[in-house]
Amino acid sequence: MILTPTEPKLAATVILLRERELDLGSDDNCEFEVLMAKRHENARFMSKHHVFPGGGIDKQDLTEESRARIVGIDEKVISNLKEICEDPANLWIIAIRELFEETGILIATRDKGNLIEINKNPKNMDNFKRYQEDLQQKRSTMTDVLINENLYYAGNFLQYFGRLVTPALSPIRFDTQFFLCKFPQNQEINLFSDELTESLWGSPTRLLDFFKKKQIKLIFPQYSTLQRLKEFKTIQEAFDKSKNASSHNRAKFL
Questions:
Q1: Domain boundaries, the chain
Q2: pTM of this prediction?
Q3: Interacting residues of 90 by C-beta distance below 8 A, sequence separation 6+
Q4: Measured CA distances, 164 to 2, 99, 200, 251 (Å)
Q5: Which H or E run includes 225?
Q6: How far apart are CA 14 and CA 176, in angstroms?
Q7: Is 70 exceeded by the pLDDT of residue 44?
């Protein structure tokens, strides 16, 4: 019997990076660390595994109103991703929405320049926590949030990093786009506890060492991404050497 592969669902994930202080007693000279989060033990997919924040496409991502709320995307990058979907700008929309829903980190701008500062006052923080919860409970859409706050998806703060398509024999399949993003100032992590139970920061080498010691669980996409990030010393180097990434920059399953 010939099995027909499940059609992969379009998805996006964000690799948040922040600068780290070097440990003088270690050989690890990486100047940045990566955010990973542990999936809930009751999760249908990758239970108890450490992952990068992200998720699948939602119908709200495809509306004209949503597309009108994104700024700063390089059209040359878009043209390199046409084989993935009709309008690759939607990939940035998925990534930013999922990042906010899962972690409370919002890559958005009011003046089309600087990112929003959510932590500028307690009232503002409470408002955005409420927005995050409303999205999680599907009481509103990301577009509603952006319009209410006069915000736009800040596409230029996400660097396309590559693509991974789940193997054809897998019962659950994703066509996942990976993005780099520098952790924004004046924002803090607020995990969606129904999906993610704890956050973990570490250099790529440190996180891989945790995996080797069986202190965390990883699957191939996360493992291979950390291996690739090990090649870079600074956040700027990671961004600069990923500028020419396209949908052909994908991890390979053997």
A1: 9-240
A2: 0.92
A3: 10, 57, 61, 62, 67
A4: 24, 18, 23, 6
A5: helix 220-229
A6: 10
A7: no
Helices (H), ranges, 56-189: 64-67, 75-79, 89-103, 122-136, 142-148
Lowest mean pLDDT among 38-47, 100-109, 244-253: 244-253
3-state helix, strand, coil in the chain (%, to 5): 30, 20, 45
CATH topology of domain 9-240: Nucleoside Triphosphate Pyrophosphohydrolase (3.90.79)
Cα 55 to Cα 61: distance, rounded to the nearest angstrom = 12
Predicted confidence (pLDDT) at residue 1 exceeds the cutoff of 60 = no
Contact 40, 50 (CB under 8 A): no
| Pairwise CA distance, residues 13 & 35, whole Å | 12
pLDDT at 17: 98
Residue 173 forms beta bridges with which residues? none
**Of 13, 17, 25, 14, whose CA–CA distance to 203 is shortest?**
17
Can you tell me the distance from the alpha carbon of 144 to that of 137, in angstroms, rounded to the nearest whole number? 14
Cα 74 to Cα 78: distance, rounded to the nearest angstrom: 7
| Contact between residue 6 and residue 171 where contact means Cβ atoms under 8 Å apart | yes
Q: What is the dihedral of CA 46, 174, 78, 32, to 10 degrees?
A: 20
Choose between 107 and 22: higher pLDDT.
107
Residue 4 has pLDDT above 50, yes or no: yes
Reported as a pLDDT band with limits 50, 70 and 90, residue 45 is: low
> Which pair of tokens denotes residue 41?
């033990």
CB-based contacts of 186: which residues, under 8 Å, 6+ apart? 117, 118, 119, 120
Q: Which of 48, 55, 53 is nearest to 217 (CA)?
A: 48
